[in-house]
Amino acid sequence: MPSSAESFAEFSAAYDALLARWPAGTDDLDVPTPYGTTRIHAHGPAQAPPLLLLPGGGATGAVWFRTARALGAGHRVLAVDLPRDAGLSVTEGRPLRTPADLMDWLDALLDGLGVDRAQLLGHSYGAWIALSYALHRPGRVDRLVLLDPTQCFAGFRLGFLLRSLPVLVRPTAARALAYLDRETAGTDTDPEWKRLYALGAEAFAGRRPVVGRRPDAAGLHAPLLVLFAARSGAHRAEDVAARARRTVPHARVETLPGLTHFAMPTALPADAEHRIAEFLAAAAGGAAAAADEGAADGPARTA
Question: Where does 148-266 show beta strands of DSSP type E?
Fold first, then answer.
């Protein structure tokens, strides 16, 4: 819930301004689930393969405006405002408290969208959700892309947690923006998104995203692309990339130079967006095999 009407109004104006940068033809959907109503921004042909975008904590679904342009021609892009986080999703009804609840929420969300199988793309906390779900419901996930994932292959750097603490404990827009400016220095991170994140930190000061243990990624069977930010403050990118390669040998793992953790996804270079599009497009060639493996889930549908 927003901390005050005034802070929420300022957040909403910034949210609308960022959403205005999404491509023409974007639709806003409110999808009911047992845990409340989830706001989704949808772009791309209705019958194209569905691609669910899960943002980092506090980032909101609006952060994916560049990704929607890059991937919307070949996919039905579905960008989520995470429950119990900044954004326009409303948490009510059944309590959403545990990782199991989070997995049930995703089941209900895909059901509400009319999607049996989807590709997932997540950043940071959203990457943890995406990987957890791919392990929990392998029959519903075709392909998986993780952007500088946290709590997936390693824990956080202590210094990163200490720098984040003031924003988490006493969030104000000014404090959050100063933090982001430090964490994204030397990158092309979008300034309007940084302002939205900062306003959201204050407007949703009481937000409590669901967290849980690191998933056992060794059990993943879905094709996986992982892109780490070389200058990430969240972890030592090269070390975690090496661990990801050992844990999921079939994964494609790359480290992107010049990027920091919060620079994703708004400062992703065009060639990285192209590699993501190419990786996701390869799902079409394996659709028949995937359908055989997930036959119990029924034929794929799109939102």
Answer: 224-229, 252-256
